[in-house]
Amino acid sequence: MTEKRPVSDIGQSAKAPEVASHHQRWRLALDKVTQRVESLSHYRHEGRVTRATGLVLEAVGIRLPLGSACLIELSAGTGNGDGERFAEAEVVGFSGDKLFLMPLADTSGLLPGARVLALSGNRLDVASARRFPLGDGLLGRVVDGNGRPLDDHGPLEQLPHAPLETPPINPLARAPIDTTIDVGIRAINGLLTVGRGQRMGLFAGSGVGKSVLLGMMARYTDADVIVVGLIGERGREVQDFIENILGEEGLARAVVVAAPADTSPLQRMQGAAYATRLAEDFRDQGRNVLLIMDSLTRYAMAAREIALAIGEPPATKGYPPSVFAKLPALVERAGNGKRGGGSITAFYTVLTEGDDQQDPIADSARAILDGHIVLSRQLAESGHYPAIDIEASISRAMPAVVDTRRLRQAQGFKQMISRYQRNRDLINVGAYVSGQDPQLDRAVALYPRLETFLQQRMNETAGIDHTRTELDRLIPIDD
C-alpha cells in the first residue's frame, strides 16, 4: 500500500530544484566577478614603456617623483609560477610627461608597451628594495648593491631596514678631528697620520698595490667596524679581496658591499651609497668606523653613464657637470658625527688613468678630501711596497692630531727623502762628493734606513707606538 505524503511536503520537493538552480547561477556570477577582480592590476598607478634605447627606458601614463622606484613588466619566459616577471628600475629624469627609467638589473624579455608599476605596498618582495638592511647582523656578511646576500649565510629579511637617504649633519655640530686612528701602516701612521673622521684619498694607477694596502688597513686598524665598498671592480677581484686580502680576521668585523663592473651603473652608484649608509648607521650607534671604498672613480664613471644616457651634455673629459656635484654629496656623508658620538674615517681610492694625477676626477677628489696618499708605479716596479710616494702625499688633518715635535719629525724625514731623490742621478754616476753638503751627506747615510722604514710586508703590522719609536731612532728631535 502506497504511503501518502502531506501536501506541504510535495510543494517543498517541487521548489528544491528551483532553489538549487538559483544558487548555482549566483555562484557562477560570483566566480566571474572574482576572476575579473583578480585579473586587475594590484598597483594603484600604472604606465607603459614607449621607448628603450641604450641604458634608459622612456615611460608615459604614470607620474612618479625623481629617485623613486618602480617595476617594469617583462615577458613571462622563465618567470615564476604565476607567469609574472619584473625588473626593478629607478626614475632618473623626466621630460614633459615622459619619465626616464634606469633598470637595476637585466631587462631581457622587455616588450613594447610593457607595464610600469608604481610600488605601493607589499605586492612583491622587490617592493621593499628601496629599504636596505642595517645593523650588527651584517657583520661578516657580503651583500650586493641592493642589500641582498651574496654569501651563503642566510637571508637578511629579519634585520631592520631603512632607506638610503639621511638628513645631513650640521657642519657646526660635527665633532672636530682631534684623535689619531691606527691603520697599521708604518708610513701612514708616522708621516701621514690620520685622524678619526678624516676622509683620505688613495691615488693610484692600476696594478700598483692599492687593494693590498686597503686590505692591510682593514686587518690592522683599531676601528670598531669596517665597511668595504667594492664598486665597479672586476668580479674576480671581489672574491680575491675577501679571501686573500681581507681575510677571516678582517671580515669578522666588516661588512662588504660588492657592486662589480658587470652590474648596471645605477646599482654601482647605489652600492656606494649603501656602503656609506651602513657606515652612518654604525656611527650613529657611537662606533668608530673605517669606510673603505674602491673606487671613487668607478662611482663617477657610473654617474657619467647615467647622465649621458638621459641627455646631459658632456664637459671635462666626457664627465657631465652633475658628476662633479655628486662626488662631494657622497664624500661629505662620511666624517665625524655629533660631539660625543661615533666617527667615519674614510679611504677612497681614485684611479688615475695613465698615472695622470691631473685627471678631472682625481683633481676634483683632491679638492674635497682631507688629504691624499699617492702610490707610485715606479716604486711598485722596483719592489718597494707599499709604493707610497711620501713626497707627493699629505694629510691635512695631521697638524690637529699630533704635537709640534711629531710634525717636525715628519717634515725632517720628507726633507731627507726629497734631498736624496733630487741628487740621485749624481750619486749613481759617482759625481757626488762627500763633505760639500752636510744635509745631503746625512740623507745619503740614512737613506737605506729611511727606505726600510717606508717598506712593510703584507702580513706585518706596525702600530702607532712602534712607529714613533722607530722614527725617534731615525730622526731624533729635541722637545
General description of the model:
The longest helix is centred in the first third of the chain and has 33 residues, at 7-39. Helix 3 packs parallel to helix 4 (235-251), helix 11 crosses helix 13 and helix 11 crosses helix 14. The chain is elongated. It has helices at 7-39, 186-191, 210-220, 235-251, 265-284, 296-309, 321-331, 360-368, 377-381, 398-401, 404-422, 424-429, 438-454, 464-474, and strands at residues 46-53, 56-60, 69-74, 85-95, 98-103, 115-118, 132-133, 141-144, 161-162, 199-204, 225-231, 254-259, 288-294, 335-336, 343-351, 371-374, 394-395. Strands 8, 10, 11, 12, 13, 14, 15, 16 and 17 form a 9-stranded mixed beta sheet that branches. Strands 1-2-5-4-3-6 form a 6-stranded antiparallel barrel. The model is unreliable at 121-129 (pLDDT under 50). It has 479 residues and is an alpha/beta fold.
